[in-house]
Design goal:
The complex is a heterodimer. By secondary structure, chain A is an alpha+beta fold. Chain A has 23 helices and 20 strands. Chain A is about 35% helix and about 20% strand. Chain B is mainly alpha-helical. Chain B folds into two domains: about 300 residues, no CATH class; about 80 residues, no CATH class. The relative contact order of chain B is 0.16. The chains are: A alpha+beta, B mainly alpha. Chains A and B meet through helix 1 and helix 2 of A and helix 9, helix 10, helix 14, helix 15 and helix 16 of B.
Chain lengths: ~625, ~450
């Protein structure tokens, strides 16, 4: 055989063997190539757990879940674009070129290798249209995430917001990644840990464009996501819906409580908002319009706003004075109207009549006795001690406390004590004569609508209450501990009888201030309040419970700058009591009058003629 | 004259078998490369594998027709063939379609024809004609003229520019060597290439040496080279007869010294003469890691794909590295990655054995010819196939610079496949007539 043939054959064999050795080295001896391939082609993805749902009292779904699509971009994969391609992409995305350029610049500044959101909350039709041609726009993709679906659009303040986690949230809790959502306010925030569930993990195959191509990969620490727990709310959906309807075009709040359990049946703050729009694609503009509204629709008045309670306060005064022995139910005081004014034709009322007539001088006297009863060397010290003792008794009704409330921003209100007045006037520089306006629920006294409803519940229970709360059950676990704790006011239940009889007559008596709260067939006990807010119109206040002997609902209604208590707050309360107890509203005329009333302008000429005296009960 | 059917009975069955095996294997692999792992395989002439299938059928029919033509036709028309392919190569520079910076395609509808692929066949026929006329390449002038015959098409292709195909023309060196070119040319050239590659590879990074500390990796290479050379010289002394011993020892020491000096000179040239970006370009050519993470993207991903194959591979249409687009140009120049990832070491070595068996069979056929024309032609075909394997597989394995040429029978490309099919068919016909050739 030719030697040159042999040489060539050997060369061929030499390289075949060399390549084989190289293959053995790459494929068998160097496992790092395999690892590298795995790290390039597989991506560890975290599976978001489905968030717990919210249900109303009778099991109605309040807050569900639906899919929302965000348009995201991976800047690394963006081609060098000319203005034509850019305008085509903008048109495809339904954005202006300027918005798109701004979003892309922001994405590039954040990271070239990480997804950034360009447009959020794309609706179903638009998503379908865009998905058909997304291959023409390299670098863009969709990210699907579940968003809250407020089926009835109610109780937005109570439920709160589920929105993108802030950089601070990301720092505090490693659970959250950029773009994740977190309960920002309301119950969504209070029960975040229960609602959010546990994230799962899975390994997926991705292609060179980082798109997921295959999810069947199984790795050791893959695990499914654990869904969050559902929240079963105490809210009665029909009651809440009606309350929100009634409070449209009004400012103020409604709080209804089931007296024996402390469960809140309805919680309304007006003006409100539609929580479903806040999770949708128009969130930005809607949020801005809400935030800039001078009536502060985002502010939960029911637990955060503090108002002077007005005449409803007189019942607290009467109860404490009875229990302290300063008065008897039969005690009468002259309605002299020297120091403090009054209204209506009465002169010599006992306690029951004083409540019915809301007699200011009567409760001025009552408060004077209580404050003067303090021990001390001087009049100033006696009054200071008396005031502090009074404050302790009042606090037992839950005033000046958060009532065990867990909602963020829940106010305590203000029950002044001696230190408070020392701070204003100086020590030994004030006595009862300085502070007497708190006797009739005015002055420095501040309470929240929730506290007022709780007073109604306490009256219904004749002396005790359970802390108001919003949750019946978390998942299947029942009521979380610490909710609905029974509290005692320390006032003997016998003292409630004259007050409750008076409350009944406020409603039942044809000339009673709360006669607009009368409901056929139901014994309603109520008390009106009218709180001055010069130069605007008065606040209209009403608290009530019903039925009288087996109370199932206690309610407070506060309508800002609308008129006197019996005019607006009382009929609203009555409609709600009727709705709750009867399951429907029979009184169409009353309903229509409330629905038609626009009381949102505090300086408006009176919408309807005032049927009772100005600045009354 | 023997009847045509008797001649066809002498056609080499083993070559046809190996050819068909390579063609099938290549097409099956192309289906995987073209479709990726997800979904069902789509068919149609708009898909790569569909187009390639059409080319396969057309090529086989053409090859079958060529088998019917007498071998003397190809010998007599060798110059015509050569001239025609040269004309095409010249024409494509004027009217060709520019793809990826090179003007190397004639566009015909959805199909493209690459004249440079056919130029290999023309050059092989012309070189065979020239050598058989001259009776070998023994004189200097003969060698120069043979080099010109190969050089003209290579020069035209370099103008496209397509450096990869030009390198393939080096395959004719094997034919020329067989016909009388000095072996020293081959050995020195080969040794120089090996030394250059090893120098560049070892000199690219630093190593930690005992006692000395960190220094350039080239010193280890030089030390190892000196040690190996010394050992080889000592072994040679013992293995040779005493009367040749002195001369062989002297030559061995001289060659080793020359190689060492070449390596040192090359390293110094790399380090001192070249500017950093030029050096980087060479290092990237050799698939070495450099500071720019994207510079060696292609070769890094090719090696990753191959390395992830393991013993038996990921399975057909199941390789994520190639299937999900991490390896560039994986239907053409990097097609071997798909095969190696999906069929593993077994598949890859099987392919290498199949391919080199094919080359060796062609060389074996060459050696059994009485006709010098057929022998040179066969060496030309075998040499070209060998250069393709050397450059393409060497590239994807990170052993050769990244130079884009197809892997015959595997890469997508109709011209390439058809040109090889025609070349093989002509060879088979010439070989079948080997008994009717007198001299």
């Amino acid at each position: 055989m030719d030697v040159r043939f042999r040489t060539v054959v050997l060369l061929v064999l030499f390289f075949t063997v060399a390549f084989t050795l190289r293959l053995i080295s790459l494929q068998i001896l160097q496992p790092e190539w395999k690892e590298k391939a795995v790290s390039l082609t597989s991506d560890r993805q975290s599976i978001p757990p489905s968030r717990g749902l919210l249900f109303a009292r009778k099991g109605e779904l309040l807050v569900g879940s639906r899919a929302a699509h965000d348009l995201v971009v991976l800047p690394r994969q963006l081609p060098e674009t000319d203005s034509l391609a850019l305008s085509q992409t903008a048109q495809w995305a339904g954005m202006t070129v300027e918005d798109l350029v701004a979003a892309l610049d922001k994405a590039k500044r954040y990271s070239r290798y990480k997804m950034s959101t360009v447009k959020r909350g794309i609706d179903v039709e638009e998503h379908a249209r865009m998905a058909a041609t997304i291959h023409l726009h390299p670098g863009f993709s969709f990210r699907t995430r579940p968003v809250r679906n407020h089926l009835h659009g109610v109780a937005g303040h109570l439920i709160g917001e589920y929105a993108e986690a802030s950089p601070k949230d990301l720092e505090i809790d490693p659970f959250y990644r950029l773009g994740d959502r977190i309960g920002r306010s309301g119950l969504e925030r209070v029960y975040e840990l229960e609602l959010r569930g546990v994230k799962g993990r899975e390994s997926v195959l991705v292609d060179a464009r980082n798109r997921v191509r295959n999810t069947t990969l199984q790795e050791g620490d893959d695990r499914p996501a654990e869904a969050g727990k559902d929240l079963h709310l105490t809210i009665d959906l029909p009651l809440q819906q009606l309350a929100e309807r009634l409070m449209q075009q009004k400012k103020g709040s409604v709080v209804a409580i089931e007296p024996h359990s402390g469960e809140v049946l309805a919680l309304v703050s007006a003006p409100g908002f539609d929580p479903d729009i806040l999770v949708g694609p128009n969130r930005g503009s809607y949020y801005n319009s809400l935030a800039s509204d001078p009536d502060k629709p985002l502010f939960n008045r029911a637990v955060k706003a503090t108002y002077r309670p007005g005449s409803i306060w007189k019942m607290v005064q009467g109860l404490i004075a009875l229990d302290e022995g300063h008065i008897q139910p039969s005690s009468r005081f002259l309605c002299d109207r020297n120091i403090i004014g009054c209204h209506g034709p009465h002169r010599w009322d006992d306690l029951r009549l004083a409540v019915i007539h809301s007699c200011n001088p009567y409760f001025y006297r009552v408060m004077k006795r209580m404050v003067n009863a303090g021990e001390g060397e001087s009049r100033f010290e006696q009054d200071a001690a008396g005031l502090d003792h009074w404050r302790n008794r009042v606090s037992a009704f839950g005033f000046g406390t958060r009532l065990g409330g867990r909602l963020p921003g829940t106010s305590t209100g203000n029950i002044p004590d001696s230190k408070y007045y020392d701070g204003i006037y100086g020590r030994h520089r004030w006595d009862f004569g300085t502070i007497y306006s708190i006797a009739i629920g005015e002055g420095e006294l501040l309470t929240t609508p929730l506290q007022m409803a709780n007073l109604a519940a306490t009256l219904a229970n004749r002396g005790w209450y359970r802390t108001p709360h919003f949750i019946r059950s978390v998942g299947e676990d029942g009521k979380p501990p610490g909710l609905g704790v029974q509290m005692d006011t320390g006032v003997d239940s016998v003292h409630f009888e004259p007050i409750i009889r008076a409350m009944q007559q406020v409603v039942e008596n044809p000339s009673g201030t709360g006669r607009r709260a009368r409901i056929r067939g139901i014994e309603v006990c109520g008390k009106t309040g009218t709180v001055q807010d010069e130069p605007r119109k008065d606040h209209s206040v009403f608290i009530a419970f019903a039925p009288k002997d087996d109370p199932r609902i206690a309610i407070s209604v506060y309508v800002e700058n609308s008129g006197f208590g019996g005019e607006w707050a009382a009929p609203i309360a009555a409609l709600l009591i009727e709705q709750y107890l009867e399951g429907e509203v029979d009184n169409d005329r009353r309903l229509q009058r409330i629905l038609d009333a626009d009381l949102s302008n505090p300086y408006a000429e009176e919408a309807t003629p005032v049927s009772a005296e100005p600045n009354a009960p | 004259m023997t009847r045509n059917s008797d001649i066809l009975r002498n056609i080499d069955g083993l070559t046809i078998l190996l050819f068909l095996m390579l063609a099938c294997l290549g097409w099956v692999n192309l289906i995987s490369a073209a479709t990726g792992p997800d979904g069902a395989v789509e068919w149609g002439l708009n898909t790569l594998h569909g187009k390639q299938g059409l080319w396969l059928v057309v090529s086989l029919v053409l090859g079958f027709l060529i088998l019917q033509i007498e071998g003397t036709f190809f010998i007599r028309t060798a110059w015509l063939n050569y001239a025609f392919t040269l004309l095409l190569c010249a024409l494509v520079l004027v009217v060709g379609r520019k793809v990826g910076g090179a003007r190397s395609w004639f566009g015909v509808g959805g199909f493209g024809i690459q004249p440079s692929e056919f130029a290999k066949m023309g050059a092989a026929l012309a070189l065979a004609w020239f050598c058989s006329k001259e009776g070998g390449l023994h004189a200097f002038g003969q060698r120069i003229r043979a080099a010109i015959i190969v050089g003209i098409p290579a020069g035209l292709i370099l103008l496209q520019p397509d450096a990869g195909t030009v390198l393939v023309f080096l395959g004719f060196v094997f034919a020329m060597y067989r016909e009388g070119l000095s072996g020293a040319v081959l050995i020195v050239g080969f040794a120089a290439v090996v030394m250059a590659v090893l120098t560049i590879l070892s000199g690219a990074g630093n190593l930690t040496y005992p006692l000395i500390g960190e220094a350039n990796g080239i010193f280890r290479f030089w030390l190892m080279f000196v040690a190996t050379a010394t050992a080889s010289v000592l072994l040679l002394r013992n293995a040779t007869l005493p009367r040749y011993r002195g001369r062989i020892t002297t030559r061995a020491i001289a060659s080793a010294l020359a190689a060492l000096i070449f390596s040192i000179g090359m390293h110094l040239a790399l380090e001192e003469v070249l500017r950093p970006h030029q050096r980087e370009r060479i290092q990237v050519l050799f698939g070495l890691e450099v500071d720019n993470p994207d510079a060696d993207y292609n070769i890094r991903h090719a090696k990753t794909a191959i390395g992830s194959g393991g013993w038996t591979g990921m399975g057909w249409r199941n390789g994520p590295m190639t299937g999900y687009g991490f390896v560039p140009e994986q239907e053409t120049d990097f097609i071997f990655c798909t095969w190696a990832e999906e069929w593993g070491l077994f598949g890859a070595v099987f392919f290498l054995i199949l391919f080199s068996s094919f080359i060796l069979r062609i060389l074996f056929i060459a050696e059994r010819q009485r006709s010098q024309f057929t022998r040179v032609y066969a060496y030309g075909v075998g040499g070209i196939l060998f250069m393709h394997m050397l450059i393409n597989v060497g590239m994807v394995l990170g052993l050769a610079p990244v130079i884009g040429i197809p892997l015959p029978f595997m890469s997508y490309g109709g011209s390439s496949f058809m040109a090889f099919a025609l070349m093989i068919a002509i060879l088979l016909r010439l070989d079948a007539e080997r008994f009717s050739v007198l001299r």
